Amino acid sequence: MPFRPSKLLRVVARATFATLLFIAPAAVDPAVQTYAHPAPDSFADLAAKLLPSVVNISTTQTLKTASGDPGGPDAPQFPPGSPFEEFFHDFLERNLPKGEHPELAPRKATSLGSGFVIDPAGYIVTNNHVIADADEITVILHDNTNLKAKVVGRDTKTDIALLKVKTDKPLVAVKWGDSDAARVGDWVLAIGNPFGLGGSVTAGILSARQRDINSGPYDDFLQTDAPINRGNSGGPMFNMDGQVIGINTAIYSPSGGSIGIGFAIPSALAKEVVQELKGEADHTVHRGWLGVRIQSVTDEIAESLGLDKAHGALVASVTDKGPAEAAGIEPGDVILGFDGKEVSDMRRLPRLVAETPVDKSVPVTLWRKHALATVRVKVGRLEETDEQQASAKTAPQKTAPSETGIVKTLGMTLSGITPELKGKYSLGDDAKGVVVVDVAKGSSAADKGFQAGDLIMEAAQEEVKNPEDLASKIAAAKRSGRKSILLLVQRQGDLRFVALRVDQG
Questions:
Q1: What is the sign, positive or negative, of the torsion defined by CA atoms of 16, 21, 26, 31?
Q2: Which of the following is catalytic: 200, 233, 304, 391?
Q3: Are 435 and 427 contacting, i.e. CB atoms less than 8 angstroms apart?
């Protein structure tokens, strides 16, 4: 009898044949063959080399009672004279050392984190939130040696802290790697102290780059699926060469445990911050400052400015006597490049400026009035009082009083500046432009957030002197076939650009 394969065998055979077809060498992209790295058989050798450089960090903090004093357990609050009040008072008395009053009993809280040695002399990097508000910091080496640590410096904006321990022997240090060279899909190792268990190693891949998780002004996180749990904060993320390419900092998790979405500060940013914390006499980070307020370039704004796509950072205002003003940067300019690096969106510019050495002269590429322009800027120093290096308010500008009149267009009722409107909307004596006195519900202006009292100072990057002037510029935009017109709007001293549709009723 001839052999007849079973139905299951036939299915397996077909699946195997299909697999062979798909993995034929001719179907593999040569570029992928050149650069793709196979998964390692084991991470054991690499982990054994790196573990001695990773430390556990234990902190102790004195807690305060509701009254603000360091104290013992906060008993539940009951009405004076309540039997429950007496019961809890007696309970605490019996469970505290003799003669010690409950409200004076010190309460200590401990927390655990991770860190890594970057200098054999005893310099250790961790997250600032790991050691924030700590009264005492203890570093536990891989061989269980306990060392007291002091804070050399910290940077709250990037959540990085540098510690120093005294040691009789050189510590095993690791080297920084290049996070910019790391590619999505590369293997990474994360080492830390999850849940206080001690040194633990997890592996995964680099899942994404340039993540913004709204934790600070310089968010530029690496994302990984290597399991990161509580206690891993401050630990290193390694590439397969054993170099630190990130500092494990945060996770996204509804439960508090790892679900495969972890974030690390890239070494390109961390290395510079640590170097300043270690080397500067004041152990603070000196950041570059440009002196502009910026906003995103939307599709409508890009269309109104003649840009081929929405990218760059739109300058809303320029700081008086700041680096940008000295270089000739103006409101309405779109910054497309800074020091030879592309400004892909608004979020990238603050990071580029912050990382630039103070007093360095750099080229800035602008889009100005439908053409490219380049200026040179001498970068200033960001002071701690500034919100960010691209944040400032424009100084008041004096101008002659505008002509009055009433015009209705694009769902807005516009008026020239009058003494009555100055008083009603608290406009300054130097106010210029036209005043929005009413906004129709459901109009494009209402959709863009226009309010009564707003001042429209420019249209299509040209000064607006009266309502008729604005109406004519809107009409010109319609005739030229543009879908939107760019307006410079002032509200309570703040300037912003708004692209308003002109092709809608």
A1: negative
A2: 233
A3: yes
Domains in the chain (CATH in brackets) are: 64-104 (no CATH), 179-279 (2.40.10.10), 288-381 (2.30.42.10), 406-501 (2.30.42.10)
Residues 52, 199: Cα–Cα separation, whole Å: 9
Asked if residue 157 lies in contact with residue 196, where contact means CB atoms within 8 angstroms, the answer is no
Contact 167, 126 (CB under 8 A): no
Q: Which residue has the tokens 């008026």?
A: 415
CA distances from 101 to 86, 91, 92, 96 (A): 14, 12, 9, 8
Residue with tokens 């830390």: 192
Would you say how long the chain is, in residues?
A: 505
CA-to-CA separations, 368 to 92, 318, 362, 477, in angstroms, rounded: 72, 15, 18, 18
- Concerning whether 29 is annotated as a catalytic residue, the answer is no
pLDDT at residue 177 tops 90: yes
pTM, rounded to two decimals = 0.63
- Cα four-point dihedral sign 446, 449, 453, 454: negative
Q: Of 129, 304, 311, 317, which residue is the catalytic one?
A: 129
Q: What are phi and psi of 276, to 5 degrees?
A: -70, -40
Q: Which of 159, 220, 225, 454 is catalytic?
A: 159
Neighbouring C-beta atoms of residue 273, cutoff 10 Å: 26
**How many other C-beta atoms lie within 10 A of the C-beta of residue 181?**
12
**Is 101 labeled as catalytic in the residue annotation?**
no
**Nearest residue to 56 via CA among 136, 113, 132, 134:** 113
Tell me how far apart the alpha carbons of residues 169 and 143 are, in angstroms, rounded to a whole number. 13
Taking the alpha carbons at both ends of the chain, their separation in whole angstroms is 83
Predicted confidence (pLDDT) per residue in 311-355, tens digit: 999 998 898 989 999 999 999 999 999 999 999 888 889 888 988
Amino acid, res. 145: T
Q: Is 233 a catalytic residue?
A: yes
